[in-house]
Amino acid sequence: MKKILMILVAVLAISSSAFAGDRDGRVSLGIGLLYENGLDATLSYERENAYHNAWEFFANGYLKWDKCASCGHVCPDSFWKNYRSWSVGVAYKPCVVRGRNHYGSFRFGGSLGSDTHKVLGGIHAGYEHNYRLRGGWQVYWQVKSDLMIKGKDLFRTGIVLGVKLPVK
Questions:
Q1: How far apart are CA 20 and CA 16, in angstroms?
Q2: Does residue 120 contact residue 152 with C-beta atoms inside 8 Å?
Q3: Are 19 and 167 in contact (CB under 8 A)?
Q4: Any idea what the CATH number is for the domain that residue 21 is in?
């Protein structure tokens, strides 16, 4: 299984450089920590318009951990089974900073999803800064703030680090 994954990553890395260019789509994966005790993972597709403005379509998973009542520490059950939610949504990202191999964008959007009991809505705002690498790859950091409607956390804020791969 490890060999298959390594071959898949190598093929993706080699073939993605052939599709590098402006105004193409990108698939990104970002993982971050949010206040208070939150872990966030986002898988998204980004379509860039003129001047680095972009639309992002994303799927997000959120996990909130807590200390275990019996042992007083964070154990596997209190980490993985405390509070979980997922959502899908869209965000618009107008570019506000441009440089030679980097650019920054505000991020405004909305989402709809669920935890294990009820439907959640979300309003998202933040800032994302991207750095271009060879072959069209990008790395980014993002400061995000989420207002979750009917969720256990009303406000979520934190930082996310991620990578973007070009796709045609």
A1: 7
A2: no
A3: yes
A4: 2.40.160.20
What is the per-residue pLDDT across 118-127, written as a single tens digit (0 to 9) for each?
899 999 999 9
Q: In this structure, what is the dihedral angle of CA atoms 8, 12, 13, 15, given to the nearest 10 degrees? A: 130
Q: How many domains does the chain have?
A: 1
122 by Cβ neighbours in 10 Å (0-12 / 13-18 / 19+) ranks as buried
- Rounded distance, CA 121 to CA 89, Å? 10
Place of tokens 């898949």: 8
For residue 64, count CB atoms less than 10 angstroms from its CB and return exposed for 0-12, middle for 13-18, buried for 19 or more: buried
Residues with Cβ within 8 Å of residue 76, at least 6 apart in sequence? none
pTM for the predicted model, two decimal places: 0.80
Note down the domain range covering 148: 2-167
Of 143, 165, 167, 140, the closest CA to residue 156 belongs to: 143
Other beta carbons within 10 Å of 85: 23
The DSSP code for 72 is S
Q: What is the pLDDT of residues 70-83, one digit of tens each?
A: 787 888 877 888 88
